[in-house]
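name: query_chain
kind: protein
chains: 1
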Amino acid sequence: MLGTNYYLAKIIEALVISIVVAFATAPLSIRIAHKLGVIDRPKDARRVHKKPIPRFGGMAIFLGSMAAMLIPAGMNEKIKIAMIGGLLMYLLGIADDIKNLKPAIKFLGQFLIASIVYALGIRITFISNYFGASVTDSHANVILSAGVAYFITVLWIVGITNAVNLMDGLDGLAAGSVAIMSLCLAYIAYIHGVRLGSMPVCIALVAVAGGCIGFLPYNFSPAKTFMGDGGALYLGYMIAVLSVISPLKRATVVGALIPMLTLAVPIFDTAFAMLRRVLRHESIMKADKGHLHHHLMAAGFGQRRSVLIMYGIVGIMGEVAILISRELYKDAIPLFLIALLYLGIIIVPKRSKKGIKRIITQDTSELEKEYFTEYLNYERERRKELREAAKAAAEAHIDEEEKGPEDKLE
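structure:
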């Protein structure tokens, strides 16, 4: 059996290769975007950038991570299958970037790719035995039927793919968040890797994280390029698939929740968006400005601070997953509650007397007006106080000058 030091060297090698290749190819992706006319123009209120930006940067992430995953130590049959699906998902995203595919066609493509990956052998075949079901394996996991396994696997891949795609709304948000989530999952695979045979998964996750890190200097605010749907769909697919390869097969009722906890922020944001659109009687595929990062922007934090806040919440949930993977539940619970508190603060506005449904369905344009009105009122009051203070000072000065010499001596 290969030792930990061997795999550690391969992990570092994968990280360096992915960062260097992604960083080196990002300028090339910008030139290709201009030649192909793949430019994101600020044509609606949902976009936060003010000038046209190339959106072909996913090529850098794809090439960087794929190059690093070609390391022999990172190659096993399931990693190869994941890479095949990643290529197909990237090509689907590229087609959308160039041709602007209809949502239904894009969704169908994701469904077909997830089905191909399932047919090739990447499957969620069990869940933790919460209720003591009779059909279990030696690790007390509930064994799923083929139909249920297919449904859950495809739902997971398509759901996480779109969740990450929805995160791609601010400069650097999706790339940085996926890097954090990938590193957390890689660490979980590493600490259990030699015993459970998940070191190749660890290397692949590090490769994905390195591709994002190498791309970030060109994508962080102010962005020189966007990853586009090619990058967003590829990243969402890779983190979804790699998170369920070689899962922790242990007799714990929360073992199956580890990937979900790591990806909790995009999952929550997507579920919240779907609920918001259902309550508005709109299509769940319709884009809007109600995502977590839109709420932060509406509160006046700006792109950089909004992204850093999101990084922090993603990192907290990643740490929760790491602690739970090591069965440190008492340490994980406070961090989980802190993350929930921050999510609640972001979603619930200052004036929360509108009812739960109103809070869920509100558009951030309404919040922007409220915050702007509040700011104007604050400025009005502040300037009024300054005028009154200046007037009082002037009156005091006049009174001082009107006093005679005798009054001053007294």
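note: The two ends are 98 Å apart (CA to CA).
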